[in-house]
Write a structure and sequence with these properties.
Blueprint: E1 9-15, E2 25-27, H1 36-40, E3 44-47, H2 55-63, E4 67-69, E5 81-85, E6 90-92, E7 115-120, H3 123-129, E8 138-144, H4 145-151, H5 156-160, H6 164-182, E9 190-194, H7 200-206, H8 225-230, H9 234-249, E10 256-260, H10 266-276, E11 285-288, H11 291-295, H12 297-302, E12 308-310, H13 312-320, H14 338-354, E13 358-361, H15 367-373, E14 378-382, H16 383-394
Parallel strand pairs: 1-2, 2-3, 3-4, 7-8, 7-14, 8-9, 9-10, 10-11, 11-12, 12-13, 13-14
Antiparallel strand pairs: 1-5, 5-6
Helix pairs in contact: 6-9
């Protein structure tokens, strides 16, 4: 299983059209951004390639949509109605559903967490989270700009390369989506948007009017902060976005902050602030997801970074040289490797020394371990896994 929510089985009709079919099981070779609508309308996804922390797999985790990876030769067999046995990571073409396995409980340490930042796909995730009484510690929600684009049916590269007017229109539409999210916030909550981090291979799937350069290794290519610095019209979009927030939200616009993705060092951070035209009093967070950024964590804090977000999914793959999108090296991609834990602790300590909040992203299976073995009381978690944690915390402990 690439993504396995708190379910034991899913039954449905296979959808091989790549178009949204509500309630179906999406069957594709590889998950990509152009499948956004088809993914979010599905009850499960079966594919042949990918890793459990890939970009679109993260969308599935946020929505609680299970993803099963099968051998390529098995994919053509999946037609009509099938049952996916999640606890056994298999697909049943016919026959009875096997007896479920009791889910593992791994959220006890969340009682010790002071702050939770929830990774969302749209405003419905905020609404559903705020109805759960066990989640009072949720004080931030986090949205990727690329997910906001997909939800609004926007192609950012097309817009940003079509001139100032289209770039500004793009920023305004993204801001309108953020305004809808702010309306769902409780008084003590804020919203963080991670600035656009669209890899070339993903961009090519949703870009129509502009040629996207083919890169031999997109993960290590021109994306994140390095792309934002190269994109001439992105500052126009960002200014229009912030202006729309101020106009429609007034003082409430301060509840929306931003974070820089895929950045290495202080030089990039300062250059990007200048590129975006930010004043000294404008808050900007930093995503720590490369080894270089871990070593620059103190520099970011001292230079005025408002928050640090440790993106463990990318950080782990770079520390261990194991592609997070490749299931063939899943055994090497270890979320609790000593080198990984040392890096996380170093970044957390940098924030503690400078009084800058540091949020560590944790898969549901790692939440307890991180709380117990790292000097942090601030976590980031996907919506569906956090809801699973809430159900666990609400379940009475059997008397002995």
């Amino acid at each position: 299983m690439l993504v396995n929510p708190n379910k034991t089985s899913v039954h449905g009709t296979c959808n091989r059209t790549r178009r949204p079919t509500p309630g179906s099981i999406l069957v594709v070779d590889t998950l990509s951004p152009d499948l956004y609508d088809a993914i979010v309308s599905s009850t499960a996804v079966v594919c042949t390639r990918g890793g459990r922390t890939g970009h679109m797999q993260s969308l599935c985790r946020s929505r609680g949509i299970p993803v099963l990876c099968v051998a390529p030769e098995a994919l053509p067999l999946l037609t009509g109605e099938v049952t996916i046995s999640l606890d056994r990571a298999s697909v049943l073409l016919s026959g009875a559903i096997p007896a479920p396995r009791a889910p593992d409980a791994g959220f006890d340490a969340l009682e010790d967490v002071d702050s939770v930042c929830v990774v969302i796909a749209d405003s419905t995730d905020i609404r559903s989270t705020n109805t759960v009484t066990q989640l009072e510690r949720v004080n931030r929600f986090f949205i990727r700009e690329e997910f906001a684009c997909l939800a609004a049916d926007l192609s950012p590269i097309d817009a940003l390369r079509a001139g100032v007017t289209e770039a500004e229109r793009y920023g305004t539409r993204i801001a309108a989506g953020l305004c809808a999210m702010v309306e769902e916030l409780l008084p003590h909550q804020t919203l963080v948007m991670r600035l656009l981090d669209l890899r070339s291979d993903d961009a090519a799937q949703i870009t129509t009017d502009v040629r996207v350069d083919d890169e031999p290794n997109p993960e290590l290519g021109l994306h994140g902060a390095r792309w934002l610095l190269e994109e001439r019209l992105y500052p126009h979009a960002f200014r229009a976005l912030r202006a729309h927030l101020r106009h429609h939200l007034g003082p409430e616009s301060n509840r929306v902050t931003f974070a820089v993705p895929f950045i290495n060092d202080l030089t990039e951070f300062l250059r990007l602030r200048r590129h975006l035209g930010l004043t000294d009093d404008t808050r900007l967070g930093v995503f720590v997801e490369t080894p270089a950024a871990v070593h620059a964590a103190t520099d970011f804090c001292q230079a005025g970074a408002s928050e640090l977000f440790i993106g463990t999914k990318d950080l782990i793959q770079f520390y261990l040289a194991a592609d997070r999108g490749n299931h063939l090296v899943a055994s090497i991609y270890q979320t609790r490797h000593p080198a990984v834990l040392a890096a996380l602790a170093q970044a957390v300590e940098a924030g503690r020394r400078t009084n800058v909040p540091v949020h560590v992203f944790a898969l549901g299976a790692d939440a307890d371990h991180y709380v117990r073995h790292l000097p942090t009381r601030r976590l980031m978690m996907c919506t569906a896994e956090l809801h699973q944690a809430a159900r666990h915390l609400a379940t009475p402990v059997p008397a002995r």
